[in-house]
Write a structure and sequence with these properties.
By secondary structure, the protein is mainly alpha-helical. The protein is built from two helices and no strands. The mean pLDDT is 83.
Length: 76
């Protein structure tokens, strides 16, 4: 049991300098960069949704409605 505890302590002790180096590092993205990316994604997503809504609302749905009415028009 003592060997097991010693082995665990050695592993933890070996990881401490690596954890300190990661926490001290200054590299990475800034908050402003991330906020701009999120804002761009929201705007582009909104534009895509608006375009799809306009396409389906004015072009696809009326044509689809006419086709369905013609398909079930038994009068000839």
């Amino acid at each position: 049991m003592r060997k097991f505890a010693t082995r665990i302590m050695n592993k933890i002790t070996g990881k401490i300098p690596m954890a300190k180096a990661i926490l001290r590092s200054q590299c990475g993205e800034n908050f402003v960069d991330t906020a701009i990316k999120i804002l761009m994604a929201v705007v582009i997503g909104g534009l895509v949704l608006a375009g799809l809504y306009a396409l389906f609302g004015e072009t696809v749905l009326p044509t689809l409605k006419e086709r369905i009415q013609e398909m079930f028009n038994y009068a000839g």
